[in-house]
Each structure stands twice: as structure tokens, then as C-alpha cells.
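Team,

Forwarding the record for the chain on the shared tracking sheet. I've put the sequence and predicted structure together so nobody has to dig through attachments.
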Amino acid sequence: MQTASVDQIRALLRTFQAITWPAGRQKALALADECGWTIRLETPRGVRYLTGYPTNDQRANALIRPDDADGSILDLTVHVSDRDPATPAELDEAYRSVAATVRAELGTPVRTDEWEHARTVWDIAGGGRVVIQKLDSVVLILRSQEVTDLERDEERLGVDPGRIPGAGDEDF
């Protein structure tokens, strides 16, 4: 199973750490140049990119809240491994490999969740978070400071991070 290279992941993390919040649509568009990506689609609520990483899943997406002329980036999701691995063990290995690269760059994670879709979370200096999650591929996610603050509030209040909103299991 192919993943983005260690150098590509490190460069992406440096780009993530350089973002100052709040960041808007213009920053989302500038990321294409900074990362060497191609913009596939721009809508009022997001930007879709092709990363060019050596995987069969080269998608990246910026989610934007259109709250003013420039909007606000809420998160940026980058697929950093092949999609639909031949075996679950390959996906597990890709997840561990990417997580090790991020750990070497960002240090000890603030949270590790071993759900069906495992994830590891790091806080970064600019106020956001970097998340690695195992879905049908390994994704690297940058959460904005606003979304990170919301997650921290939920953690403080004891809200289960694995809940599915609207599923009827939100006993507060």
C-alpha cells in the first residue's frame, strides 16, 4: 500500500503549522500553490484539490464556512494513502507509518482513540489540531482553531468523541 512520502508529510505539517487563524478562502486557494496541488473545484463551502501524491487517492478538501466575503476554513482533509487496501493489515501499517512520521515531527499526541476508525490527535502552536484518522484510506486533517476549541470544550464536558450526533445516544 502506497502512502505519501515522509518528506511530503513533513512539508504538509510545516505548511499546517504556518497557518494563522482565522484563515479564509484566500488561504485555502493559496494552499494549492504552497503544496503543489491542483484545484479541482471551488464552491462557496469548500475547495477540492488533487495532491499528486503517489497514491490511488489523491484527494484533499478544505471545508469553508461562508460567513463573510472570504469565509473561514474549518478543516482541511488530505488523503495520504491508497484507498481500499487489499487487506486491513495494510491499512493498519499505513496508519502506523504516517502516525510515526507525524509523531517524529510534532511529538507526543494529546489523544489517541482506538475505535473502528482509529485516530491520533496533536495540538499545534497556532491553536489548531492535526489529526490522523484511519478510514478507507489514511487521512491527515488540519482542524481550525475554532473547531479545535469546540473539541476541547466537548472533552472538558465529557462528551464522548466517538458519538454520532443525531443517533439518539447524546445523554447529556
